[in-house]
């Protein structure tokens, strides 16, 4: 089959061809094998390509009929997963370097996570925050003991965590300036992403995300990521309540901050009483080979927002704050019905206990270096590759063309990857439990699929 004929996502025949591809089929009679000793049900595999195409096509058609069209989904219907592998409804196997966008840090079907969730589901799932629950307090203790923070606020997602941080910053400044007008502005940076709800959206740099919903929250100043002088000058104006920054930008294109930049922000904020907020929704919780990405720099925030990997795939967000910030927050200032439920917190405890183990973190750092070295060795001389960057297991491959043809070609060959930046960066955020053998496999598929970048677009 000619790979170039499959590269256009708009091709009328691409769906049928995708479904018919006999790539990486799973065993039809037994659960797939992977690095975790947990059985995962795989879909019934029917080798008839017409039946395969029909099954996926029906599901995709129903999605278009019943779901609000906010997602430009890849035409792939996933049904099960184990370890670093995913399986579609036709039984084909994929090596997952997306982790549900950096969420499934322990991969799919981790046995300790499954045990925690199933046991807690049989005991108590939800109480609301009208009452106390033990798993929520235990998770908060673990987060505080392993970080700079003194207290935790729980929510349901990364964007909710940043919304809470916005409110906490405003309330802190009002609390600290009770005798005069408090600063209300915010600083964010180029290529940043902080979420899609109205406050977090106002802090997100991509204009095409904000424009359809303007006016968004006013008072946000966008500066160049890494520009020490510009940031210091705006902070010193005394009009900024908080600075929001990602120590390592994910969606923006896998850009790392320098220690000098973060240290300058810390010093400038301290000089005027501005809060420094680290958004570690994607780069935190072991992704860089450190529990927190900012530990790499030995620079610490007043507020940190978390979400993606914390509960292993269940919805959670968290805002970690120092005591001086917490002192400004009163009963009723913020809240959430679902946040910090016993079920989700029990899952998060299982994840955090594994990720925070020093040997686990060392393995992430080691595998990340191995992965980058392998990419440089195998792809570094490719004419389309401009730079390979990242830390730990958040790695970006910057190209001189759109990454979409490569992403689609890799999918056809059984490898799932993401884009970032302006669409020209391949973002790879595999489960942190991925093996070196699986990383070898991923790089070999990338090498085989690179010619897709030279194919003309199929209109």
Automatic annotation (TrEMBL):
InterPro entries: AcOrn/SuccOrn_fam, Aminotrans_3, Aminotrans_3_PPA_site, Class-III_PLP-dep_AT, PyrdxlP-dep_Trfase, PyrdxlP-dep_Trfase_major, PyrdxlP-dep_Trfase_small. It is an enzyme of class 2 (transferase). One of its GO terms (cellular component) is mitochondrion. Keywords: Amino-acid biosynthesis, Aminotransferase, Arginine biosynthesis, Mitochondrion, Pyridoxal phosphate, Transferase, Transit peptide. Its cofactor is pyridoxal 5'-phosphate. It catalyses: N(2)-acetyl-L-ornithine + 2-oxoglutarate = N-acetyl-L-glutamate 5-semialdehyde + L-glutamate. Its main location: mitochondrion. Signal peptide: none annotated. Pathway: Amino-acid biosynthesis; L-arginine biosynthesis; N(2)-acetyl-L-ornithine from L-glutamate: step 4/4. One of its GO terms (biological process) is L-arginine biosynthetic process. It comes from the Eukaryota. It is found in: Mitochondrion. The keyword 4Fe-4S does not apply. One of its GO terms (molecular function) is N2-acetyl-L-ornithine:2-oxoglutarate 5-aminotransferase activity. SUPFAM superfamilies: PLP-dependent transferases (SSF53383). Coiled coil: none annotated. Its EC number is 2.6.1.11. Belongs to the class-III pyridoxal-phosphate-dependent aminotransferase family. This is acetylornithine transaminase.
């Amino acid at each position: 089959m000619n790979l170039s004929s499959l590269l256009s996502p708009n091709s009328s025949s691409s769906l049928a061809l995708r479904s018919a591809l006999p790539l990486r089929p799973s065993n039809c009679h037994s659960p797939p094998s992977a690095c975790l000793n947990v059985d995962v049900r795989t879909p019934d595999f029917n080798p008839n390509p017409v039946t395969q195409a029909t099954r996926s096509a029906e599901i995709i058609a129903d999605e278009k009929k019943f779901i609000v069209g906010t997602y430009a989904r890849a035409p792939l219907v996933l049904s099960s997963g184990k370890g670093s592998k995913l399986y579609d409804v036709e039984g084909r196997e994929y090596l997952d370097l997306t982790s549900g966008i950096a969420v499934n840090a322990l991969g799919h079907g981790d046995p300790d996570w499954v045990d925690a969730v199933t046991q807690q589901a049989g005991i108590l799932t939800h109480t609301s925050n009208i009452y106390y629950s033990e798993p929520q307090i235990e998770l908060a203790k673990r987060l505080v003991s392993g970080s700079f923070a003194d207290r935790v606020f729980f929510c349901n997602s990364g964007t909710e965590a940043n919304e809470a941080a916005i409110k906490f910053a405003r309330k802190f400044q009002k609390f600290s300036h009770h005798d005069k007008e408090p600063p209300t502005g915010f600083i964010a940076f180029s290529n940043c992403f902080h979420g899609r709800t109205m406050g977090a959206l106002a802090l997100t740099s991509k204009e095409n995300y904000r424009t359809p919903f303007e006016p968004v929250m006013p008072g946000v100043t966008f500066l160049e990521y890494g520009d020490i002088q510009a940031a210091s000058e705006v902070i010193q104006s005394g009009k900024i309540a908080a600075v929001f920054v990602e120590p390592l930008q994910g969606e923006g294109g896998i850009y790392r901050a320098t220690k000098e930049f973060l240290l300058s922000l810390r010093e400038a904020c301290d000089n005027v009483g501005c809060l420094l907020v680290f958004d570690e929704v994607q780069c935190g919780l072991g992704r860089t080979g450190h529990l927190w990405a900012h530990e790499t720099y030995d620079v610490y925030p007043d507020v940190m927002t978390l979400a993606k990997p914390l509960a292993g795939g269940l919805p959670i967000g968290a805002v970690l704050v120092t005591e001086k910030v917490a002192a400004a927050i009163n009963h009723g200032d913020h809240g959430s019905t679902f946040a910090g439920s016993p079920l989700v917190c029990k899952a998060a405890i299982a994840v955090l206990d594994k990720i925070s183990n020093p040997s686990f973190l060392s393995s992430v750092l080691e595998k990340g270096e191995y992965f980058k070295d392998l990419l440089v060795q195998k792809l570094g001389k490719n004419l389309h590759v401009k730079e390979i960057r990242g830390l730990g297991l958040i790695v970006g491959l910057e190209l001189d063309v759109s990454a979409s043809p490569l992403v689609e070609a890799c999918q056809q060959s059984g490898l799932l990857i993401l884009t970032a930046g302006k669409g020209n960066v391949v973002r790879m955020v595999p489960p942190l439990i991925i093996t070196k053998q699986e990383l070898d496999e991923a790089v070999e598929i990338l090498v085989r699929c690179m010619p897709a970048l030279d194919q003309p677009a199929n209109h």
